[in-house]
Design brief:
Layout lengths: L1 E4 L4 E4 L22 H21 L7 E6 L11 E7 L8 E12 L4 E17 L14 E7 L38 E3 L4 E8 L2 E9 L3 E2 L3 E6 L4 E8 L2 E5 L1
Parallel strand pairs: 2-3, 9-14
Antiparallel strand pairs: 1-2, 3-6, 4-5, 5-6, 6-7, 8-11, 9-10, 10-12, 12-13, 13-14
């Protein structure tokens, strides 16, 4: 089965439910003539689409979401069911390779099983324009934009080329492969003992001063700084010899 979910950028593919689990009531939409399995596949995909869309919110250019619905374990022997209700188990990640629950709400036996699904989230992102070796310092000619599956790895894909320029690769990339956050070496903005600029921000105001870093400033990580007055404070290293402190 392959059906397009118009207006949501959704493609639904495949469903393999045990035949005994699906009774054969009349189609909900006689014009489409969809089988019970097809109706359930569409319902499953719509539920997963809604959950996955919450991650991106109301973006100006929403991603294209593709759902591949897998098959139940062939060893299962399920009683016939007139109403199968899909649900997202608590704590499940609604993108990538995941599982959904199927609950029989109306049948001779009230069973509950899980079904594998793969949710692909396609959107423009930064990719390697050519094969790139470990240690490459990224320049504009190394990079391109292409539609990639953001959900293929839990590690976020970079969607802005500017965020990658000047960064060093921690692993090699094949041509067309998406550039992800963990593919880049962590930036160290300063060493222990360096003089740093401390930027303090509070509700409606900001202050700036200098201090001495007591440990290396790794991008996005906490660093301790001794101020000119001798006080030791903690902040986040977020730029060249710069530490941001929330007041």
């Amino acid at each position: 089965m392959a059906a397009a979910w118009r207006g949501a950028g959704l493609v639904v593919g495949g469903l393999g439910l045990a035949a005994a689990a699906l009774a054969e009531p009349p189609p909900a939409n006689p014009q489409r003539g969809a089988s019970p399995a097809e109706q359930l596949a569409t319902e499953v995909a719509a539920m997963v689409l809604q959950a996955a869309s919450l991650i991106w919110g109301e973006s100006a250019r929403p991603p294209r979401i593709e759902v591949q619905v897998g098959r139940l374990d062939a060893r299962l022997r399920l009683a016939p069911c007139q109403q199968i209700v899909p649900y997202l188990p608590a704590g499940s990640r609604p993108i990538g390779r995941t599982r959904i629950g199927l609950r029989c709400a109306e049948g001779s036996a009230h069973w509950n099983v899980s079904l594998p699904v793969t949710v692909m989230v396609w959107a423009p992102a930064v990719v390697a324009a050519t094969a790139l070796a470990v240690g490459t310092v990224l320049q504009p000619q190394h990079l391109a934009q292409a539609e990639v599956d953001l959900a293929a790895r839990a590690d976020p894909a970079l969607q802005l080329t500017a965020a990658a320029l000047g960064r060093t690769l921690a692993r090699g990339l094949a041509p067309g492969e998406a550039l992800r956050r963990d593919d880049l070496k962590t930036r160290q903005w300063f060493n222990a003992g360096d003089t740093v600029r401390v930027l303090g921000q509070g509700p409606g105001y900001a202050v700036s001063s200098e201090g001495q870093a007591l440990n290396a400033g790794v991008d996005g990580q906490t660093v301790r700084v001794r101020t000119e007055g001798g006080r030791i404070i903690s902040g986040v290293a977020n730029g060249d010899h710069r530490v941001e402190v929330t007041l």
